[in-house]
Amino acid sequence: MHIIQAMTSVHDRYLSNSSLLQTPEESYHLSQAAALFNKQLSKPVKPVDQDAIWATALSEFTFDLGLKQGLDFAVSIKTAC
Q1: Which uninterrupted H or E stretch holds 11?
Q2: Which end of the chain is more exposed for a tag (fewer CB within 10 A), N or C?
Q3: Domain range for residue 33?
């Protein structure tokens, strides 16, 4: 749930043409998502939890990749102007 909330916060910031800086809400939700994900992975995974773990892993990877590419693109635009 926290990874979705972080993604939503980033998307809202993007739509509002706000700064490139991460908001406290984004930081909080990303931190919570990572901590809870780590907690789940540090114990035996139950079959009932496998789909949620895969979905979270894919979401975190996609989010991190998109955030990095988005920031690189935004910085390149600002330096070109």
Answers
A1: helix 2-15
A2: C
A3: 2-80
- Rounded CA-CA distance 37/46 in Å is 14
Tens-of-pLDDT digits for all 81 residues of the chain?
A: 788 888 888 778 778 877 677 788 888 988 898 898 889 889 999 999 899 888 888 887 777 766 665 555 554 554 555
DSSP state, 43? S
Note whether 7 and 63 are within 8 A (CB): yes
pTM: 0.65
Number of domains in the chain: 1
Residue 47: which H helix or E strand, with range?
none
